[in-house]
TrEMBL record, chains A, B:
Keywords: Aminoacyl-tRNA synthetase, ATP-binding, Coiled coil, Cytoplasm, Ligase, Nucleotide-binding, Protein biosynthesis. It catalyses: tRNA(Asn) + L-asparagine + ATP = L-asparaginyl-tRNA(Asn) + AMP + diphosphate + H(+). Belongs to the class-II aminoacyl-tRNA synthetase family. This is Asparagine--tRNA ligase. It comes from the Bacteria. It comes from Pinibacter aurantiacus.
Amino acid sequence: MFNKRIKVKQLLASEQTGHEVTVMGWVRTFRNNQFLAVNDGSTNNNIQIVLELGQFDEALLKRLTTSASVKVTGEVVPSMGKGQKIEVKAKTLEILGDSDAEKYPLQLRNRPSLEYLREIAHMRFRTNTFGAVFRVRHSLAFAIHKFFNEKGFVYLHTPIITASDAEGAGEMFRVTSLPFDGTPRNEDGSVNFKEDFFGKSTNLTVSGQLEGELGATAFGEIYTFGPTFRAENSNTARHLAEFWMIEPEMAFSDLEDNMNLAEEFIKYIIQYAMDNNREDLEFLAQRLVEEEKQKPQAERSEMGLIEKLEFVLNNNFERITYTEAIDILLQSPAYKKKKFQYEVKWGIDMQSEHERYLVEKHFKKPVIVTNYPKDIKAFYMRLNEDGKTVAAMDILAPGIGEIVGGSQREERLENLEARMKEMHVPAEDLWWYLDTRRFGTVPHAGFGLGFERMVLFVTGMTNIRDVIAFPRTPKTAEF
Amino acid sequence: MFNKRIKVKQLLASEQTGHEVTVMGWVRTFRNNQFLAVNDGSTNNNIQIVLELGQFDEALLKRLTTSASVKVTGEVVPSMGKGQKIEVKAKTLEILGDSDAEKYPLQLRNRPSLEYLREIAHMRFRTNTFGAVFRVRHSLAFAIHKFFNEKGFVYLHTPIITASDAEGAGEMFRVTSLPFDGTPRNEDGSVNFKEDFFGKSTNLTVSGQLEGELGATAFGEIYTFGPTFRAENSNTARHLAEFWMIEPEMAFSDLEDNMNLAEEFIKYIIQYAMDNNREDLEFLAQRLVEEEKQKPQAERSEMGLIEKLEFVLNNNFERITYTEAIDILLQSPAYKKKKFQYEVKWGIDMQSEHERYLVEKHFKKPVIVTNYPKDIKAFYMRLNEDGKTVAAMDILAPGIGEIVGGSQREERLENLEARMKEMHVPAEDLWWYLDTRRFGTVPHAGFGLGFERMVLFVTGMTNIRDVIAFPRTPKTAEF
């Protein structure tokens, strides 16, 4: 048994002194041949190890370079230094692994840029920024499971590989075990997918919703939390080819139930991070202040990160219809001064500039927009009585844009079939989906939350590549 | 707001009477034009709704067929019938969705086979067996997150799409957006993967371990819980092409720490299901008894499902070395009577029949086998001092076989490089993996648990296709 250590987070949390502990971690700094700051990833805070002068060989001390790994045993004593209440007076010090200072790619004193850190994503977890981001990401993920478990939702693993390409949410990646050379062909020259692994053409899922509805119409309430994929050539700070999505689906629910759940859910997971990751969030708040110092005053956030999160927790999300949203835009000074690049009129799919105006300028808080024109939304959304709009909802967040997309689902078989026909969705491929409307159909609703966009919002990071461990984007699939 | 209901599980848990409730769910049975059993998926138990004779139209009552969905409001009263303490005396009854009894594919009175239910996997959640299985699956998944969260492990989402095919864990699926017709080619005729979405050839991951090690050597302890893939043509009751895996990875840990964690972990999640899903497990135990009545006495389980789980909770896993395991096999009556189909000698990769003998006949409990010959294990496993074996561990479970595979990892750069060379693993593709050994390497260890095999073990189901929502196997990717 090697792992007889106390984690630094736990050690710092107790202010007890006088006992012996073993700490293991990586060297952050070594000052005056005496003060060794060790980090073990449990927190951004280091434990200070004090080496008495003359106690250890010079040769050993020379090896205490950044990121060398050490095992230290010693007594916990009150610290005289500022910034920590306790420190460890070393009795024994062992170097587990050296780190060649010349070659180590992460020289923190050089303040590596986020762009550079993406190139060494295998090492960036060792920085304070990414330590904080990924511990917050962990907490948000755990809070998501905790929230749904407490409410009695069943966690459903919907399939990743799918033969159904009917959802129309975007471009899909092909999954295949057929070769490009000597591809099996039918007599007419087309590819013979019967020879493929699954006996048909298959893709990576863009959403687990349709299968989620199968679960909800049996268990009542389910959620998914899994990877989803888009083969879209979008090289932006908000898009990934592989990202994680949470999709709750609730039987016996309408659009208002859906909005209530989404708002409660978002507040719950933010509150959980505030309660459990306060230090990490404060670090990230400070990081954001520093980052924004590079920007002109007018472009800086009005609120700090913690303030922003508290504001979201303490205020109701604004709820407006799409029609109201268009009216607000048409009456806005921005519109009158022709500051919008894209057209504004009823029926448009709102552009980022419109959403940002609503959220960041007009309401200055998260906004739920409902009842969109049917022509810009998916076939499964419930048609409203006006015959023109559907019971959809998007939640728009300041600085991020769309963070949630959802709807009440069309539970009426005839309406659904008519809509599928209009939109050229092949009913024969979705016989199983239609069965839920044939046998005990119920009003139901659900939404999808893009997990990385939520992590962006909570951490104040600005590029989505910095909140997922190893981002997959066009021309990039490193590590 | 539509969702003003009490879930059946919650209603049955309280024995309070005299108040009014609204219940929504699906009809299970309707007897004597009077007793309506309604299920909402929160539990296998139904709430009995009592309809006073003459209170509702005959035409309405005729629509109360299996799986019709209903909304009932009424008073909770003590039940005179057996099997339940309370029932609901209906005041209002609304049919939300009809279910044509002639067409409904799931006629429970016919005792549909598990094979048939796989063909209607979109409806099988509505049976008691699959209700219980997927609620237990949910609880196990939640318990996994709870266990690691309490221990301070960071949940890491390792990539699903990967360009690294060096792990050698099995056949991989290709992920591509290149067309089969008019595939871009290099001058030498080979496929030009620079034109593919990620600018190189990519596959679906077979394991998140290598990336997990990158996390562990920064955060100390991490775990993954995500889908993994094998493009292997194995049409067995234990193999899936898409399955979920949990992979914890711990810095500052050796093989013994790894075994301790795995055993504690498995017991924790079983205990959680026992505490939170007792009714479902008792139902599944009874189901298993019924299923085994079809088998000859000698093939039936010695223990019932609940007994088996309690036995695992209350006993230490047996820990033996591979060398000891081979000795036990060589000295077994089965070997002496030539009952093994495959050869037994030091160096073999044990076959299922050998593992089953050890677990089911010899020890009759979970067994951890350690220190396998290096030639049958992966390149990243730590070489023992004997130069012949590696610090690997497999956990074998009765009735299931291998449920966990893990090892202490080779943290010594020279050893790892030598092993990669011997096994033809290209070092240039894994430069990032080797960097963890270059910069502050530490003793570390981890394992992978196949989630569906664990669900099989806990639910007593015997075919892995029955414990994942929509199984992906050769020639099958329905729903």
